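User: I'm new to structure prediction. If I give you an amino acid sequence, what do you actually give back? Let's try with this one:
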Amino acid sequence: MKKGGHFKVPTKKTEAIEYQSEDIPLQERLLRDFTDARGLKARLPIAVDLGKSAADLDDKATASEVALTKLNEEISSHARTQSALALEAVMVRDDLAEALGAAVGEDAPAESAIWDGESKLSEIIPAMPVGRQHRALESYQSTTENWPQDFLNLITQVPARLVGDCITLLAEGGHKKELTEELNSLINHHGATGELLLWLAKDKSGDYAELLTPEAFGAMLSAIERETSDEKRASKLRDFLLTDAKFFDLITSDVDVEVVQDIVRAIQMSTCFEGMDKRSVLGKIVKAHPEIQSFITQGDKDKAETKPVDSSLIVSWESLERKKNDLEELMQKRIPANSKEIEIAREYGDLRENAEFKAAKEQQKVLMALQAEWENDVDRARGINYADADTSAANVGTRVTVTNLANNEREEYSLMGAWDGDPDNNRISYLTPLGQAIFGSEPGAEVEVQLGDETRRIRVDSIAPLAS
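Assistant: Good question. You get back a string of structure tokens that encode the predicted 3D arrangement of the chain. For your 468 residues, that looks like this:
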């Protein structure tokens, strides 16, 4: 379509294609647009089009003379005031010259004229179009003698993607040893940024996997806390830690249980994670190290002893995850859908006689009450691993055999968490009347339980793990 003289194809995808009654040759149209463009930034995409259309131009010599001369003038005038734009223009000019088979010229401004030291590196690279940033780094590398040290400094100033580009160029340039030493130092002194640590965490199977240690996780917590004023940066690393399934397996592999306990303490004391997010992170560690569950549970017990009333809910990690998913679905799908129903019903007219509106509003009350209830439940929930249950007494996660002393009939119950009850299969929540009666009882203990109008006296005979 660009070849057709009647059509003017815009450089921006958001702009409409224009039909022109006059049939204008491609080269004439492109050079006219190039000349009429207001400023270097507007001229560059047209120069790119010239290069892409080189094979269809009638007079490449004229096209190169007009375009390259103008670009050289503007590169020189922008080199100091808008260095990133000038560098991009140098790249566009060089590509155009190659496409047209023309010489740039000995006196033409080069990339080396734009780079004047490290102070500009951290300003120019992020300001470049994403597609040209790696090439800009290569440009700096080829024109600056001290580029390795400058790149080492840059990795704490740029987004994760550019961190990866810098590290790749350093390694390929034979500076992997210095790079590894610098990364170790930044981690150990908690000087690494969240973006740098995010790149390292995502690259966990790469050449620097050995740097992902418990110390690196400590540096991540420090970075998140330090960057809380920049929520976007802090949340990227925090979200990764919450969603990546293998990260905690990796950093805690081949370490002593005391080190895992230190990680748990750091998470519990950190302000990086709140509520169910903190429980989710702890759940990932428990999944990798089930033996740490008792440590977490004991810590919760120690905290509970300082409170007059323990209002926590004992739940399995699996049921906690289900409850969180239910809450998320409620907040992300069901409540928004109800809000839309209310808006639609509102359009039906008189709200006093609007049955659809009243029904939707009643449903809104139910959903909001449910949200408050579930948020409270999740906040109170204390996840445990049933496999670690203490069988010295009837605890959550144990199988309890009891005798009804009125008729000497024996029954067996599985004592479950708050949300795992299944009465039809004798799996009872510890919050039920029977569960509360036997909870904490040792073998031989006799307890009374009120079941409806009946008071039943039972004896706890034996306690065993659920799995046996």
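You can read the tokens as a compact description of the fold. Here is one thing that stands out. Residues 1-6, 303-309 have pLDDT under 50 and may be disordered.
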